[in-house]
Each structure stands twice: as structure tokens, then as C-alpha cells.
Amino acid sequence: MSKELFITSELQREWLEKLKDIKDLIVESAEKNDRNASFPKENIQKLIEIGYTKLTLPQSYGGEGISVSDMVLLQETLSSYDGATALSIGWHQGVVGELYEYKLWDEKKLQQFANEIVNGALVNRAVSEAQTGSPTRGGRPQTTAVKKDGDWILSGQKNFTTMSPVLTHFLVSAWIEEKNGIGFFLIDRNSDGLSIKETWNMVGMRSTESHDLVLDAVKVTNDCFVEFSTGPRGAKANGWLLHIPACYLGIAQAARDYAVQFAVTYRPNSIKGPISELPNVQNHIGDIDLELMKARHFLYSVASAYDDPARRKFIKQELGAAKSVVTNSAIRIVDQAMRIVGAKSLELTNPLQRYYRDVRAGLHNPPMDDMVISKLSQTAIHEILERQEQ
Questions:
Q1: Where is the Acyl-CoA dehydrogenase/oxidase C-terminal domain (predicted)?
Q2: Domain 4-121 in CATH: superfamily?
Q3: Quick check: 99 pLDDT over 80?
């Protein structure tokens, strides 16, 4: 199944070619990085060099100003080369896109940080904690920020800090007792008291090295206090989080391509031709492509609606639904691909077993399936009650 149907601009074609130029580097390193649980530093450095990491920065700040649809297309493509590389850099792309679309900081800080991004800075939010779980569920951070002599002192530990080996900046959530709310602080990697605790030891997305961030009385100036809220984040629609389902769609596409290639070339001596001529194998391939079509059309349709100001206001639960639908479709696609290939798919040198492990990580990226279903239900009930009151 081709993505050509979803390519809508010369800018997209240009960047697809740039990614294609570094495909071999990324594909060839994926198996080794996964086996050793080592971060793909060379891949990320190459993405910085070609300007990929400033794509979601608006042109007025020195970036390319790509749309969410552009990002989804490029992230899906990158993930078909290596899911861990795509998911890692996807967090940076998404954070930058959100920051500058909604102007979440004051203008001076946005300008300053834009210069850093243009020069290769990498950022991710550090929000998850062992005691609170996913921040999307509303848990209060155990990490604290206390004002002292005009500065802020932060202490705590964050887990699942994806891309921790190369991040230059961390957007850290912390509870501010005196304000009775949650603040976000932009912290430089070289800050005293900041360290990385190597805790990441997972079966999936192993090479993202999403270790713990440890803050031991880290002092930052007041201008690093960049965001504050008294309620959970997410009140505004954030289409930049679609980098998550784009990643798992790319893995599914890679699994599909491998399985179909295997089917048309594998010729066991028990039959005359390749296994692609067998009805049951053709059924698997057909089911895979149908699942891919549904997932891709859903994802790109939501991205397109988000990019259109006239339609964005009608988006309610579509962003979360897109993540849930695509991730679960990707899991089914990889499963069917492995059924085509058989026991060979379990060999540690076979990419399908890596796709199988990596794609399941999507279940634990926000928003989780149960929250998506709950919000869909609540929205439907609320709409009916509103009509009755009119």
C-alpha cells in the first residue's frame, strides 16, 4: 500500500527524499541498537544536520513551519525505517509544534529557545513519575519546585524520559505548593544536580533509552519558569501528539512490506510456486492492507481537519481516537505479518520480532485506550443532555 495518495505538496516530496537519503543509515543500525538497548545517536545527529528538528518551528522563528499533516507523513516514513528513532525525535517535534502554535511561553523566551532549536537543541517534556503514573490521568507531580532567593529549587525523579542521552533541555513538571498548581520549568542538561539514572530495560522501544531524570535540588532562574496551570494539561486540542500514532503506523507498514516480500519469494518444496499463491496467505495480505487503509485514512483525515482552522473547532475526541485506532490496527497488522512469515519471524535477527515488541509500546503512550473510550462516551452523553436542555 502506497502513501502517494497522501502526499499533497512539493515540500513533502522534498523531505521524503531527504529522509530516503539517510534510510540505509537508520535501517542498518536498528537491529544492533535494539539488541544492545543503545540510543541511535548517529541517526538523531543526522536528522539535526539535515534540518529535520526545526521543521515544526514556525518560519517566523527560523524554522520550516510544517503542518501537522506534514509531520505525520514524515514521521510515519521515518518510523518505517526505525520506530525507536522516529518515536524519540517525534517527542521533540511535537513539543516544539505545540509550544509555538499556542505561544505557551512569553515572547522573549520563545525567541531565545527558537535560536537554540535552530542550532540543534533537543527538548522533551519530563512529566511521568512512578507514584503518579501517566500525567494524562491527573496525578499530582511528586517533583517539587520551591522559590528561594528569587530562584527555583527543583527536586524529584521523572521516568520515561525518552531521548534522555541526547536531550539538551527538559521541560519538567513540578508541584508548586505556594501556588497550589503545576509549573513547567525549562532546565538545561548541564544544570548542577541534574542527572540521568539508567533505568530503561524494556522489551519494546529498547533503544529510545527512556531513562529516569533525577533532580537533586536543581536551581534555575525565574525566567525558566515557563508554564503554570491549576488543572491537568490538555484543555486545548494538541494535534502535534499525532506523531505517536504516525510512529506505530510506520512500523505496521514496515511489517507489511516485509511479509509481502517474503510471501512472493518464499518457495517451499511442498508447493509449486511461492506462498503468495496460497489462498490463506492472500487473505492475510488482504486483511493487512485493508487495516492499513482504514488506519491511514483515519489518521490523515484527523490531521487534515486539525490543520484547517475552520474545521478544527469541531474536533472533540478525534485526536485520541486516532491514536487508539491506529495503534491497535498496527498491532493487528504486525500479528498478521508474523503469521505469514511463520516461525522465522521469531528469529532475533528478523525485524518482525522487533516490530512486534515495539508496536505494543503504543498501548502505553498517551492517551490510553480506556481514557479514549471513556471520553467518547462522556461526550456522547453530554451532547444528548445539552439537546434536552435546549
A1: 245-361
A2: Acyl-CoA dehydrogenase/oxidase, N-terminal domain (1.10.540.10)
A3: yes
